[in-house]
Design goal:
single chain, about 425 residues, alpha+beta, binds flavin-adenine dinucleotide
């Protein structure tokens, strides 16, 4: 998929995006057909030649805002073709008490609350779209070796000897971002002391196109509906228990899941391999530096309990794209601090608000202190009966508006197809 003739050992760009994952490739699509010359550097070769019936056990709950971004960038149809699952209900309850809350898309006049999509489906759609843009080179696989920032530009060398330079480098290279480490930007971070065990299961009763989430002191357990009727499991639990769950044979794992979740979906059976992801909150103390910007997981990671991580990253991508395109139109350098600070100002408050909310939720439900248990259970039940509060919660989770700390949603995240690129 590499479009570049690498016999030329030196290449110049306006913007180099390191990381061709969901967020990095989306930023590139948002800069497609512009006057900016873009390189996307991805360390690993993608393989979209899937076996019939296979699954990616990593999935994402995608908000309406993210769906609009994908629609406006012309990649939503490709995702629909490969399989997206709309969900229109969400059931949330506290396993240690009587507290519960239920959300239904009809309460806010929408057909659905969002979609569950395999990560490989998203990545395939956005990476494939890059080939449509003459101003974008996708360099894959390419391993970077060094990065030098100076007042004028950024210079990179790759392990194969290729040298690249640009006005701006964007780190979209995930939670352990190489770009962030090279930049020296510091990170606020702590472990949740939980791992998320992920896998797929079949259930004898239908998932009813609903997300089911049960909160337990050691972490939440979610069943997310998939297009083929199976469910994706995200089971956040202590590091020790996660290891125990991974070591069990398939039958014992299914049994343990059944006992923990109960019979709401009938008989549960493991139908895939299992994976495990350590959970950490991370927040880069700065998103930008002269000639450098961080987006997506390179800038922040959040507990997956409300499925917001990639949704925040996609908003970073389209806000940064807006600012870079504005700079281009106004003949300003895309690497200038004045341009990059605008991106940071527009995204930081929103991201911090979401990180803090998810962190608070995680702590609230991890706590076994009886008065707090009573409070959270009655809080859930009260919220369930208060329509305005509930509507606000649903709309925020659907990404229908920003956190309230920042402005309205960026243009590409709005349902206005006039921005669609061809
Ligand atoms: C269990 C779990 C469940 C989740 N569920 C949800 C959910 O339901 N909804 C949601 O919104 N979010 C969810 N998330 C979060 C979501 O997965 C992340 O926020 C998202 O993957 C971040 O995308 P990204 O493109 O920023 O980073 P990544 O997905 O990590 O992609 C980074 C890319 O950069 C490449 N790369 C890395 N280093 C280099 C380098 N040095 N050079 C070149 N390329 C490099 C990688 O190969 C990769 O392709 C979940 C996370 C976990 C752990």
């Amino acid at each position: 998929m590499t479009k570049l003739n690498t016999t030329n050992k030196e290449q110049s760009y306006d913007v180099i995006i390191v990381g061709g994952g969901m967020v990095g490739a989306t930023l590139a699509c948002a800069l497609g057909n512009s006057s900016l010359k873009i390189a996307v550097i991805e360390a690993y070769q993608s393989n979209f030649d899937w076996q019939e019936g296979s699954h990616d056990i990593r999935v994402s709950a995608i908000t309406h805002a993210s769906q609009h971004i994908f629609e406006n960038l012309g990649v939503w149809d490709g995702m629909q073709h490969d399989g997206v699952a709309a969900y229109d209900k969400m059931h949330v309850w506290d396993a240690t008490g009587q507290g519960q809350i239920h959300f239904d898309s009809t309460e806010v006049g929408q057909a659905d609350l969002g979609h569950i999509i395999e990560n490989r489906v998203i990545q395939k759609a956005v990476q494939t779209r890059l080939a449509d843009f003459d101003n974008i080179d996708l360099l894959m696989p390419l391993q970077l070796q060094s990065m030098q920032l100076n007042g004028q530009n950024v210079e990179l060398t790759a392990t194969d000897g290729l040298r690249l330079n640009a006005q701006l480098i964007v780190g979209a290279d995930g939670a352990n971002s190489w770009v962030r480490k090279q930049s020296g930007i510091s990170l606020s971070s702590w472990s949740y002391h939980q791992n998320a065990v992920v896998c797929n299961v079949t259930t004898s009763d239908s998932h009813q196109n609903a997300c089911w989430q049960q909160f337990m002191p050691e972490g939440p357990l979610a069943f997310l509906p998939l297009a083929d009727g199976q469910s994706s499991i995200v089971w956040s639990t202590t590091e020790e228990k996660a290891q125990w769950l991974l070591n069990m044979d398939e039958h014992d794992f299914s049994q343990e899941l059944q006992v923990t979740f109960g019979s709401s979906l009938g008989r549960i059976q493991l139908s895939s391999e299992r994976g495990s992801f350590p959970l950490r909150l991370r927040h880069a103390n700065h998103y930008v530096q002269e000639r450098l910007a961080l987006i997506g997981d390179a800038a922040h990671t959040v507990h997956p309990l409300a499925g917001q991580g990639v949704n925040l990253g996609l908003l970073d991508a389209v806000v940064l794209a807006e600012e870079l395109l504005n700079a281009g139109e106004n003949k300003r350098s895309v690497g200038a601090m004045s341009v990059l600070r605008r991106y940071e100002r527009r995204r930081k408050g929103d991201n911090i608000a979401m990180l803090a909310a998810m962190d608070g939720f995680k702590r609230l439900f991890s706590n076994d202190f009886t008065p707090l248990k009573v409070l959270r259970n009655s809080g859930l039940n009260i919220a369930d009966t208060l329509s305005p509060l509930k509507n606000l919660m649903i709309k925020r989770a659907m990404g229908l508006f920003g956190s309230g700390l920042s402005e309205k949603l960026p243009r590409l995240a709005q349902p206005d197809l006039s921005h669609k690129q061809n």
